[in-house]
């Protein structure tokens, strides 16, 4: 998948109603989640310069060299998680929640930030590259909070995501190294579904004369080729409207 070959979001891949339970193992919900990682921080010292008369200045005593110490540790058990809010101009606001995984790769994987830089370790083993393939799984659903821009008055656009609207959106995937973006041209779609949110409540309201707009959740899974990709690179997901407006952008990073 690349900027030249974007994926259309209105595909007809095989679906299943238990996508959340089977694919995410209960770690991802339609209302969002938090990716909690323990980080131990060591405050940095603050240098102070003193101006003294020349006759009073004496050379400072040489300090003993200090051994390097770990400043922070990040635990990637369970994979990488991503989440962001997006919006369509004069249209609905939404949330993207996702997960990057690979069998066994993230087990006991940690990043240790030291004075000499970041090192990725699994026990005593140093990890420098991703495995041959990663699994990118994410969902898109309506979401409104203070980050949502105000809608124009009297707009004819839907306040909620619809099948027709999502079918016009395009997905772009990149590897990001520093400021460089490299399009991912050969991502493989493995799963797609569109499922109603609270279908029983929606049906009940319609049956009692108080119909409410249908709310849906879109679920996706892609296989991302990642052989030889440094673990310091980020996987970037960009969702664009038909006129190339960026509706959402989010990165999964180590």
Structure description:
There is one protein chain. With about 250 residues, the protein is mainly β. It has one domain. It is built from three helices and 14 strands. It has helices at about 20-25, 165, 200-205; strands at about 5-10, 70-75, 80-85, 95-100, 110-115, 115-120, 125, 135-140, 170-175, 180-185, 190-195, 215-225, 235-240, 245-250. Strands 1, 9, 10, 13 and 14 form a five-stranded antiparallel sheet that branches. A hairpin with a 5-residue loop joins strand 13 and strand 14. The longest helix is centred in the C-terminal third of the chain and has 9 residues, at about 200-205.
Which key phrases capture this entry?
254 residues, 5-stranded antiparallel beta sheet, 3 helices, disordered N terminus
Biggest sheet overview? 5 strands, antiparallel
Question: How many beta-strand segments?
Answer: 14
Which oligomeric form is depicted? single chain
String of helices and strands: EHEEEEEEEHEEEHEEE
Cα(first) to Cα(last) distance is 22 Å
